[in-house]
Specification:
By secondary structure, the protein is α/β, with parallel strands linked by helices. It is 35% helix and 25% strand. The strands form three sheets. A six-stranded mixed β-sheet has the order 6-7-8-3-9-10, with helices on both faces. Strands 2-1-4-5 form a four-stranded antiparallel β-sheet, with helices on one face. The C terminus is likely disordered.
Amino acid sequence: MASEPILAINNLHQHFRVSRSNTVKAVNGVSFNIFAGETYGLVGESGSGKSTIGRCAIRLYKPTSGSISFCGQDISSKLSKPASESLRSSMQMVFQDPMSSLNPRKKASDIVGEGLDIHKLYSSKAERDEKIIEMLELVGLSKEHADRYPHQFSGGQRQRLGIARALIIKPKLVICDEAISALDVSIQAQIVNLLKRLQKWAGTAYLFIAHDLSMVKYVSDRIGVLHLGYLVESGTTREIFEQPIHPYTKSLLSAIPIADPAAEKGRAAISYDYASSGISYEDGDDRLVGGTHYVRATEPEFALWAGSK
């Protein structure tokens, strides 16, 4: 693992003012790092702030406070035109709904080649066409698909188009925002295997946003657990699944079904209610709650909740 992270998010806050008296605090003090070539999984229930963090990282949202550093450059403040162009060529996003993220009036070849056109990454039309066909084949499509429109593809094929569009310029980081949640289970496995294969091909890092813990376990090197806009636990995939510490993480893991009817029948899910738990996410690093001392580590990339009685 490289010594310097490719993406460093430090104490990120993202608040949305919906009226004079109401503000939605979507993200509160989140910190984590992503290193080159690795996959960082971000999990949590709907409304926990996962997609908001991804959109802040790619600067679709301007952060309320905190800092975001990409390749050593601060991108949390207003970007200059050269910095913006550099960011767009080095960071890409794969959206949840492939149909709504693809231009219905453009052919597949033009959709996939859009990044090449914007950043002028070819010297001739022949080179452009060659790169597009190569990318289509890498994602499991063929040359014959180049002249089709998005409505002529299946859901899985449209997601492959979205992935091809994101990866054709070989970005350093790809944000996968619920990229498989709208697909059938069998197609999900194909897309995840495709992402892993393309990661080796392009050397790309992934921020993998999802709520399917089983899929996150398969694809991620490290995992962050979000709840109510707070990063409550972060660690390696093995640490999160084998030694979860925060009660919310334990609750999430206990909800994963076991493929054994006998074991599943005798298993009980662990419930977690923040309001009655006695835990306060806003109190800071150290607290004593119900006889258990929760400590949050200072290193953003290893922000583990450690507990001892």
